[in-house]
Amino acid sequence: MRGLAEMGRRVGESGADGALLDLIYGAVADPDRWPDVLTRVADHLGAVGGMLVHVPRAGSGPVIDIYGRLSEEHGAIFRQHYTWNPWSLAMTSVPFGKAVAVNSLLEPGSLVKTGFYADVLRPQGHVDILNMKHRALSQGGAVGGFGFCLSARGAEQADKSVRRLQRLVPHLGRALDGALHLGPLADGTRQLGRVLQLMPNPALLLDGRARVILANSAAETLLGTGDGLSTARDGGLQLVAARPAETAALSRTLGQALAVAAGADDALGAPLRLTRPSGAPPLLVLPVPLPPPAFEFWSLLEPARALVLIVDPAAQRRGKTSAIEAAFKLTPAEARVAVLVSGGLSGPQVADALGLSLSTVKTHLRRCFEKTGMHSKVELALLLGSLPDDPADGPA
Q: Rounded mean pLDDT of 211-221?
């Protein structure tokens, strides 16, 4: 009984009932509940509605916002024309976690002279806002946190509402931090990372700026050799090809995949071949766009936005050659051609790699089709992909 009484006393002191706190912390595991949280907190404060917003420094990215009972139409005008308005500018100097009525930070009467007031605030009947700046949303020149808009009637009780919001600051901040910390789990990056480590072929995860955030052991080995593909520090760990011209092509190919992942484009480039200084068959790079995070604020955590698969014919060749020879009674020469062609190399590239004439390669490939019953390079690649490597053979 004493414990329940103490809990009731603390909830009473917080200025919020238990149901409101349950709703706030429920948004940790279910970010879709944030609009309801903002609406209920607005009611608790006597506000018209609420928002959760991240305003980046100019030119560094999009505004991210969630609204509770506020106009999306006027929100679009805010995002397009007024992100750095008198309110957001004033909040840059406010300490993290301090609740304020933002008009108290402005020169009296200055707000109503602005286009922001005329185009966004006045049509909605907003005259002031209660804000708390949150550290996770205000890094690198950005400003962000929670805001609750007040009508003229609500503004009359602004001091009381500020005190109420201040009591909720620890709860709102803790719930948002919890939701953000779940991001790497909820967007599937961690699970995908485990899968990558089990893959025998090189594979990497990239963030939205094409920076490597995870490489499996096969990719680390390949990148360490620098034979066709490596990494360089340029605002993060970036993939670079052995040849400068191919680095530019690689950047374009990765950029296309990331544009698809961001919903900015629907055109995906063809797989890219990268020359290897060692003379080994070229690497085949296949970027795969990954879906956007389910909770828009998780984009601030730089989640994985592209999976990059790398086909290394040199590493696969010996085991696959033994397997296909045994299964279909191919000659060693025919098996080598089959493996390289199924790895994505063209006829002339196979000829260069094996030191054969193009006509000889075509002859070997025709016999591969006859013996395996396949009719195309794609079918042959699928067949080889279904065969296990010969465990007696190590990597090439």
A: 91
Tokens for 131, please give them. 């804000």
Q: Give the class (CATH, top level) of 315-385.
A: mainly alpha
Cα 75 to chain centroid distance, Å, stands at 24
How many angstroms from the chain centroid is the CA of residue 3?
Answer: 44
Domains 2-181 and 315-385 share a fold: no
Reported as a single tens digit per residue, the pLDDT across 330-383 is: 888 888 888 888 777 788 888 877 888 999 999 999 998 898 888 888 888 777
CA distance 136 to 142: 10
Beta strands 49-55; 143-150: pairing state: antiparallel
Domain boundaries, the chain: 2-181, 187-311, 315-385
**What's the CATH class of domain 2-181?**
alpha beta
Whole-angstrom distance, CA of residue 362 vs CA of residue 259: 38
pTM: 0.63
CATH topology of domain 187-311: Beta-Lactamase (3.30.450)
Q: Could you tell me the two tokens for 346?
A: 């063209």
Question: What digits encode the pLDDT tens for the residues 56-88?
Answer: 998 778 899 999 999 999 999 999 999 999 999
